[in-house]
């Protein structure tokens, strides 16, 4: 029941934030992707997700309570708080991943205010697929996520995570 309440809040915010967009009809059908990760079904328009995608820096500046789509690199994991964050293997936290605009190999380090923690323990499907303990090959992989902007682990983050797509 605890996971349903944030999900309903996120869906309500998503519906309330929707605006009608007039798109000329060129005869093409929009590409959609269906996911079976939840008890409910949701269809995402891949083209519109691409257009609304924020960087990690932009996501950090977005208002709390907003449903956002963010693209960044998985640069670490943590459990309980950001002081326990691990940015190099072996990883030991399965409850959150940490996103950045840059890979660790592309910079000399991170400041905590440049990082976006993402809660992955609201749904076991997210946790099983995204935790770095069981999936170390995801380290520094680019990911696109949709979720609710919230204060998570004491700083701006994403909770709950609604949808994710690992970029090839």
Itemize the secondary structure elements and their pairings.
Elements: H1 4-16, E1 32-35, E2 42-45, H2 46-51, H3 56-61, E3 67-78, E4 96-100, E5 116-119, H4 124-130, E6 142-152, E7 155-166
Antiparallel strand pairs: 1-2, 3-4, 3-6, 4-5, 6-7
**Strand neighbour order, sheet with most strands:** 5-4-3-6-7
Characterize the overall form: globular
Overall pLDDT level = 78
- The secondary-structure class comes to alpha+beta
Distance between the termini: 34 Å
* Rg on CA atoms, Å: 16 Å
Supply the number of helical segments: 4
SSE ordering: HEEHHEEEHEE
Descriptive overview:
The protein has 168 residues and is α+β, with helices and mostly antiparallel strands. The chain is built from four helices and seven strands, in the order H-E-E-H-H-E-E-E-H-E-E. It has helices at 4-16, 46-51, 56-61, 124-130, and strands at residues 32-35, 42-45, 67-78, 96-100, 116-119, 142-152, 155-166. The strands form two sheets. The protein has a five-stranded antiparallel beta sheet. A two-stranded antiparallel sheet has the order 1-2. The longest helix is centred in the N-terminal third of the chain and has 13 residues, at 4-16.
């Amino acid at each position: 029941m605890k996971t349903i309440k944030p999900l309903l809040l996120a869906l309500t915010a998503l519906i309330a934030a929707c605006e009608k967009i007039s798109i000329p009809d060129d005869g093409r059908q929009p590409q959609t992707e269906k996911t079976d990760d939840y008890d409910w079904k949701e269809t995402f328009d891949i083209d519109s997700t691409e257009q609304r995608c924020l960087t990690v820096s932009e996501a950090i500046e977005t208002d709390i309570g907003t449903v956002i789509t963010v693209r960044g690199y998985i640069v670490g994991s943590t459990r309980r708080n950001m002081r326990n964050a691990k940015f190099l293997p072996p990883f030991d936290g399965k409850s959150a991943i940490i996103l950045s605009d840059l890979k660790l190999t592309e910079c000399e380090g991170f400041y905590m205010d440049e990082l976006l923690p993402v809660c992955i323990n609201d749904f076991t499907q997210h946790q099983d697929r995204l935790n770095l303990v069981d999936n170390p090959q995801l380290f520094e992989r680019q990911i696109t996520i949709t979720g609710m902007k919230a204060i998570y682990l004491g700083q701006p983050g994403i909770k709950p995570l609604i949808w994710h797509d690992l970029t090839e």
